[in-house]
Design goal:
The structure holds 2 protein chains of 2 kinds. Helices cover about 0% and strands about 55% of the residues of chain A. By secondary structure, chain A is mostly beta strands. In chain A, a hairpin with a 6-residue loop joins strand 4 and strand 5. Chain A is globular, with a radius of gyration of 14 Å. Chain B is globular, with a radius of gyration of 13 Å. The chains are: A mainly beta, B mainly beta. At the A-B interface, strand 4, strand 5, strand 9 and strand 10 of A face strand 3 and strand 4 of B.
Chain lengths: ~120, ~110
C-alpha cells in the first residue's frame, strides 16, 4: 500500500528555536498534502493544506508566519515551526491523497512528536 | 464534510465481531464514508471506504444503510491489536481535507 513518512519521529527543542518536520510520499506523487496537529486526548485538527508549487492554505486560527509550509516537490512537504514555545508541543501528522484508476485514498504519516522546553 | 456521530467508547471480547456504528444523516450524494483508526501515538491508519454499496477488504467490512444516513464498520474477529480510536468521516474525493470528530475508542478485552 501507499506509504507516507515523516522525519523526525520525535524532536525536543528549546523555546525560541525553529523546528522543521518533513513529510514524504514514498511511492506516489501528491500535489496536495495536509498538516494536522493533535493535542493529548484530543482529535486531529487540520492546520493547513499544502499545495505543490503554490502557497499553503491555512485553517482559521493557525498563524501562517509561525507554521511555515513548503511543498517544493510532488513528494515532499515541510512544516517549520518557527520560534517554538511550550504551547506548540504537540503531535504533528501529515497526510496525502493517493489516486489510482480504481480509487482515491488519503494516507497518513506516522506523526512527529514535538516537545518544546 | 457532513457531520458524523459515533459512540465515545465500546468494548468487545477478543475473537468476537466488533460492530462500530456511525451516523451521518446529512451526508450528501457525492460524499463517501471513510473509516480510519488511530492506535496510541501513531498516525491514523486507513481501513475502508464506501459510497453506497457494502464493501469488504482484508481488514474490515463496511455496511452502509440504503438511505446512507448511517453505516457500521465490522471487524470480524477482533484481536487485542484492534484496540484503537476509530474515526468515521464523510468526505468527497479529489484532494479534500478530512475532518476528524472524536471517534469511538474501541477496547478489545481478552
Amino acid at each position: 500500500g501507499a506509504v507516507v513518512s515523516q522525519h523526525p519521529s520525535r524532536v525536543i527543542c528549546k523555546s525560541g528555536t525553529s523546528v522543521k518536520i518533513e513529510c514524504r510520499s514514498l511511492d506516489f506523487q501528491a500535489t496536495t498534502m495536509f498538516w494536522y496537529r493533535q493535542f493529548p486526548k484530543q482529535s486531529l485538527m487540520l492546520m493547513a493544506t499544502s499545495n505543490e508549487g503554490s502557497k499553503a492554505t491555512y485553517e482559521q486560527g493557525v498563524e501562517k508566519d509561525k507554521f511555515l509550509i513548503n511543498h517544493a516537490s510532488l513528494t515532499l512537504s515541510t512544516l517549520t515551526v518557527t520560534s517554538a514555545h511550550p504551547e506548540d508541543s504537540s503531535f504533528y501528522i501529515c497526510s496525502a491523497w493517493k489516486t489510482t484508476s480504481l480509487q482515491e485514498t488519503q494516507y497518513f504519516g506516522p506523526g512527529t512528536r514535538l516537545l518544546v522546553l | 464534510d457532513a457531520k458524523t456521530t459515533q459512540p465515545p467508547s465500546m468494548d468487545c471480547a477478543e475473537g468476537r465481531a466488533a460492530n462500530l456504528p456511525c451516523n451521518h444523516s446529512t451526508i450528501s450524494g457525492n460524499e463517501y464514508v471513510y473509516w480510519y483508526r488511530q492506535i496510541h501515538s501513531q498516525g491514523p491508519q486507513y481501513i475502508i471506504h464506501g459510497l453506497k454499496n457494502n464493501e469488504t477488504n482484508e481488514m474490515a467490512s463496511l455496511i452502509i444503510t440504503e438511505d446512507r444516513k448511517s453505516s457500521t464498520l465490522i471487524l470480524p474477529h477482533a484481536t487485542l491489536r484492534d484496540t484503537a480510536v476509530y474515526y468515521c468521516i464523510a468526505s468527497n474525493f479529489g484532494n479534500e481535507k478530512l475532518t476528524f470528530g472524536t471517534g469511538t475508542r474501541l477496547t478489545i478485552i481478552p
